[in-house]
Amino acid sequence: MQISFIIPHKGRFEMLIQTIVSIAKQNVDLSQVEVIVVSQTPDVLNQTLSGSAKLLIKPHLRPENETISALRNFGVTQSSGQYLAFLDADVYLSENWGEQMQRILTQNPKRIIASAMQICTFDAPPLEKIRTSLSNAELDVNVAFLPGRNLFLRREAFAKIGGFPEHLITCEDYYFTDKAAQLGELFYTSSATYIHLGEDKTLKGMFDKEIWRGQSNLQSIEGRHIPLREWPSFVVPPAIFLFIVTSFICLFAGLYSLAICSLLIGLIPVMAYSIRLQNINELPVSFCQIFLFYSVYFPARAIGTFVGLFKSIRVRNS
User: Fold this and answer.
1) 40-88: per-residue pLDDT in tens?
2) How many domains does the chain have?
3) Which helix (H) or strand (E) holds 93?
4) Of 141, 169, 199, at which residue does a domain stop?
5) Which is nearest to 79 in space by CA: 112, 34, 42, 30?
6) Are 95 and 75 in contact (CB under 8 A)?
7) Does 234 lie in the same domain as 131?
8) Which residues span the domain enclosing 70?
9) Beta-carbon contacts of residue 201 (< 8 Å; ≥ 6 apart)
10) Which CATH number covers residue 123?
11) What is the tens place of the pLDDT at every residue in 155-167?
């Protein structure tokens, strides 16, 4: 077997089907492709997952308490491909994805993981355009880390990395690709693309998801060196959140000058990040929409970080 696609899954069968359909349209020999679906949804064994009669699909059911890392690692044990392709269950690949990922890896022996660029749907709302632009801040270069939505690597490389960190609920892709970067290059290419079908469409949806995503922020830095460029992502969200909370406390206490000062200080990083993103990419969205995005994103990340911290303390004290 040449390529093993490994897809962790829970709910939303319609997006999983679209992901499988995009695999069935790959410009590769489908007889050399297998799809390992590792699901936590009981109905997965009764669902019709076929995207093509030529596509070999192997569904597996796993306990709901297992992390996404555990699902991916289990998928590897059930696979036989020379290459491992880790996908989320809500992505739609370009038809040249498989062939381009192989080309990227064979082109340079130093490369250990390849990943394709994200593109928007034709009717994407402003939030999806912003998230996509953030994903594509660096293109056709080696990067420090890669999101777990589409990762392509050799089986022996996965073994050297040591698998995904099963103790993390989120941020497992940062942890995994950070370890991979110590062994070789991570290359983010524009020669192939994918659509993130499950991308955040509304600020409320993003707020809820970022709280969930942020809960493993602190755990993900344990046991690894954190480069200077990563520190703002850990420090800035809690700082902004604390200044905003302080502003409200001062407002209710009648300390109006302090409330305004605290709010302005908290909004300085929001303004800086908004200007930076607008300058990096010519987004077809207004500056106000970018500013609103960061005004929601940073507090949500901070809340998620605090939630994760409290959970960690509770576990250690139990």
Assistant:
1) 988 776 666 776 667 899 999 999 999 999 999 999 999 999 999 999 9
2) 2
3) strand 91-93
4) 199
5) 34
6) no
7) no
8) 3-199
9) 125, 127, 128
10) 3.90.550.10
11) 999 999 999 999 8
